[in-house]
Amino acid sequence: MNLINGFKLMEYAKGKGIVLPCFNTTNYELTYGIIKGLQNSGRGGYIQISSNNLELSSPQIIVDMVRFAMKDLNVDVPIVLHLDHGKSFDDVKACIDAGFTSIMIDASHLPLEENIEEVKKVTEYCHYFNIPVEAELGAIGGKEEAEALNKEGKTNSEDVGLFLEQTNCDLLAVSVGNVHGLAKEPNIDFELLKEIASVSTVPLVLHGGSGIPFDDVRKARGSNLIKVNYGSDLRKVFISTFGKAYEKNHNAFDVKSLSKLAIKAVSESVVTISNNINQK
Ligand code: G3H
Ligand code: ZN
């Protein structure tokens, strides 16, 4: 199976009554491990790369890696390639040109009116290509850069109606006590999440999945949650495979064998996450 369209994956999730796991990639081995894990989970999902990580590789390289892995693994579950925390209109255009099938534009650091303007522009463009757009309202804490910009603040439920009406975006990333990275403890504000869900006309996205107890994700499913992002957990699994081997033996330089082990560990972690967040 080839990559599928983001709207189709959203329909699939609704039809099956599941929440879609979404995993951040950076390089080939992470990509292969994520695709393998999604296939082994028997459930569809997202693979994504953030604008920041595109500094390492062009959108076309990412598309080619994902497509190669899907073909090599005979994938038969629906998978979408998503731009995560899209930083600019140029990145959005480059990703669509390369073959991404879903887009996030993150203008949440801007004042509300400017966030709306930016998202509206991207949504109009993406919808022309029938590609869904995720936007962020409020600011998700956790990362030092974000905190240095003083951009932490929960989503204001009173802004949701206007934001969605004016931007026409298709998924909404919320800040409800979820945090990026592993340095800070998440503390989900379920009341706020419910309040947002009650006024939102689109499904919600939870960023910062790493560190959120599976019980909390399952509880959040009742609030029209469609997608949960996982980055740090997989990176830790990946890097620790190499770290542990090196600690054990400073002459452990067998990159091929260690990469295979890392792919296995990543794919197992993907299965665990997909199963746990969807447990009844
Ligand atoms: O956009 C990416 C995610 O929100 C990843 O967050 O590294 O805390 O899992 P995480
Ligand atoms: Zn995020």
Report on the structure:
This protein has 280 residues and is of the alpha/beta class. It has a single domain (6-277), classed as TIM Barrel (Alpha-Beta Barrel), CATH 3.20.20. The chain is built from eleven helices and eight strands. It has an eight-stranded parallel β-barrel, surrounded by nine helices. Helix 2 packs across helix 3, helix 2 (28-41) runs parallel beside helix 11 and helix 7 (157-167) packs parallel to helix 8. It is globular. Bound molecules: glyceraldehyde-3-phosphate and zinc ion. The site of zinc ion (ZN) has 4 residues, from loops. It comes from Streptococcus chenjunshii. Zn(2+) 1 binds at residues 85, 180, 207. Its cofactor is Zn(2+). One of its GO terms (biological process) is carbohydrate metabolic process.
Radius of gyration: 18 Å
The CATH topology name reads TIM Barrel
Helix content: 40-55%
Mean pLDDT: 95
Binding site for Zn(2+) 1: 85, 180, 207
Keywords: Metal-binding, Zinc
GO molecular function, one term: zinc ion binding
Cofactor: Zn(2+)
List the helices and strands and how they pair.
Blueprint: H1 6-16, E1 20-24, H2 28-41, E2 45-50, H3 59-72, E3 79-86, H4 89-98, E4 102-105, H5 112-128, E5 133-137, H6 144-148, H7 157-167, E6 171-174, H8 190-199, E7 204-206, H9 214-220, E8 225-230, H10 232-248, H11 255-277
Parallel strand pairs: 1-2, 1-8, 2-3, 3-4, 4-5, 5-6, 6-7, 7-8
Residues 85, 180, 207, 229 line the site of zinc ion.
Structural features:
alpha/beta, binds zinc ion, TIM Barrel, 280 residues, globular, binds glyceraldehyde-3-phosphate, FBA_II, metal-binding
